[in-house]
Amino acid sequence: MYDLISIGDSITDVLLEVDTTDTESMCRVDQEKCLICFEYGSKIPVSKMTRVLASGNAANNAIGSARLGLKTAIYTVLGSDQDSQDTKKVFEDEDVSTEFVVMESGGRSNYSTIIDYGEERTIFAYHEPRKYSFPPLPPVKWAYYTSVGKNHEIFHTQIPEYMKKYDISLAFSPGSFQIREGLENLKPILAAADLLILNKQEAMLLVGGEDLKESIVKLRETGAKTIVITDGAEGSVGSFDGKEFWRVGVPQNAPVVESTGAGDAYSTGFLAATIYGKPIAEAMVWGTLNATSVIGQIGSRAGLLTKAGLEEFSRKYGIELKPKLI
């Protein structure tokens, strides 16, 4: 039996690091309005380009979970182009089962172009139109449902039915298309979710408000059980019952190269700890350590930790990550 099946899209990432030494007259960051601005008509120098296959929320979770010792499979729809074939090979090399990978004839890969400027980034994402249909899957311990493209609405009924039929625990980490559907449309999935992980901005879009504890209380009204909200450099807040709330910060002196994949790494670490039977506070630390490693390297996958790597990071940064009841 698999410990985990990850459900969602896979993407090829192209990361472009803007050369900040030569572009001050053509580029700027507006922190107040959350904007990265480029002068139109200009040719912007790029200091480094990195291409990462088998990226995206589900792929990152599947690969990260396998590295942490879980028996993992992925359900994802790929195309028939070379990137799709290479992506499948990455999964195989990372010990992720491709038993449920669909190679769609004539389809192309999903792509995202990530513009890194200093410590900020903007992502341009392209999702190839897919024909989603939930396949017959075996009983597993956990399923992790995350970002998919348009026309995925059939999953809102199929996934809860699958969870109920086989008594499977569901973790849900919504992607951008799912968040745009709004709270009402997501209620069937949320009601089936044993674990919901999202960031502060996503929580605000679903239930409004700035206070993370209040957001968790509102989200629990949908039926979701354990809920964790991440908040970048402010750390994360989580609760398993809507009454007891934990906060875990982030290491202050850990290197930050770029933040792509930080949320996926956190979710992966948290869920792995949960599957291993750890309490919520310790699971939040696992998530934070995994995310800390990922943002210290380029791309969403390079920093995903093994269990040995997690132990090493815990020795290095764990003393800063004491969970606190708030």
Automatic annotation (TrEMBL):
Q: Does Transferase show up as a keyword for this record? A: yes
From the Swiss-Prot or TrEMBL record, what is one GO molecular function term? Answer: kinase activity
Instruction: Tell me yes or no: is Protein biosynthesis among this UniProt entry's keywords.
Output: no
Q: Which residues form the Carbohydrate kinase PfkB domain?
A: 51-304
Query: What InterPro entries does the database record attribute to this sequence?
Result: Carb_kinase_PfkB-like (IPR052700), PfkB_dom (IPR011611), Ribo/fructo_kinase (IPR002139), Ribokinase-like (IPR029056)
Q: Which UniProt keywords apply?
A: Kinase, Transferase
Name the protein family.
Belongs to the carbohydrate kinase PfkB family.
- Protein's name according to its UniProt entry: Carbohydrate kinase PfkB domain-containing protein
